[in-house]
Amino acid sequence: MAVRSRPSAERGKERAAERAHWPGAAPNEAVAAGCDKIVQELSKVQGVAKVLVAQHDVYKGFLAEELTPLVLATQKQFNYTHICSGASAFGKNLIPRVAAKLDVAPISDIIEIKSPDTFVRTIYAGNVICTVQCDEGVKVFSVCGTSFEAAPPSAGSASVEKIEQKLTESDRPELTSAKVVVSGGRVGASHAAVDAGFVPNDLQVGQTGKIVAPELYIAMGISGAIQHLAWMKDSKTIVAINKDPEAPIFQVADCGLVADLFQAVPEVTELLKKK
Ligand SMILES: Cc1cc2nc3c(=O)[nH]c(=O)nc-3n(C[C@H](O)[C@H](O)[C@H](O)COP(=O)(O)OP(=O)(O)OC[C@H]3O[C@@H](n4cnc5c(N)ncnc54)[C@H](O)[C@@H]3O)c2cc1C
Q1: Domains present along the chain, CATH in parentheses
Q2: Residue 264 Cα, ligand 1 centroid: separation in angstroms?
Q3: Is the Cβ atom of 183 under 6 angstroms away from ligand 1?
Q4: Distance (Å, rounded) from C-alpha 157 to C-alpha 145?
Q5: Which mutation among 183, 191, 243 tests ligand 1's pocket best, with the greatest number of atoms within 8 A of CB?
Q6: Which one, of 166, 163, 149, lies nearest residue 50 by Cα?
Q7: pTM greater than the 0.70 cutoff
């Protein structure tokens, strides 16, 4: 759920009213992913002005990895001042990711809203209660639902708007089911290459990426760190090209070439084309 920011002129006039009504108020816009019945119910909740709906099979599992880009794209488009979620397993997964991507500190488990930037939250498993003021441009927080009165579920009449998100489309086979995987490392899909922005993270192999075991795995300029190795070592045939003969990737490689990949790869490609 997200609260949309208002234009600054409007904000000044509304601020007093906003303050008076803030504690306990429902957010005025909500983002729903893929559920007609929920959309209908949400649109009737008092205080909700608009429900944004994104429908796609990828959102059915409520995976934070899929939902974070959706929330970020929505934030980019609508420029909300507050983004929140329930303090559930779902919220605990999603909210820190969204906050990290927006480069703001999230506030978790709030039990009271004192003003638009001041919240009460519990720490030490509820043994200490603290009041925090948040000076981030966007307030990202999770809410203990049991600490708030439920908004009346039938007094509202929010509009419903569909939003679209561009999902990664590729004519390549899915990484986990591909028969041949060609991976490039920091030099040229290891974690380092994704971090460097060379490739999207759906191409990352490894502990925090995908597990692969294709017929043929070609590792080019990949050192073979354990976080990469353990998730691709079951590949049927592993070919490694690395200029460092001591690179750990050679310990699991069936076929290794110690060479500069910028020289070796074009040569091998030419040879293969001639075959
Ligand atoms: C919690 C955690 C989770 C992680 N998860 C993952 C994960 O899912 N996947 C993953 O890949 N990593 C993961 N990592 C990171 C991992 O530890 C390594 O840092 C990363 O795999 C290194 O990537 P790299 O081999 O591409 O880069 P580097 O370690 O920089 O190695 C580059 C290699 O390329 C070789 N090279 C350089 N230039 C050339 C050239 N011109 N020709 C030939 N060879 C060359 C070098 O000799 C070197 O061996 C994780 C780390 C942590 C802590």
Answers
A1: 2-162 (3.40.50.620), 175-273 (3.40.50.1220)
A2: 19
A3: no
A4: 22
A5: 191
A6: 163
A7: no
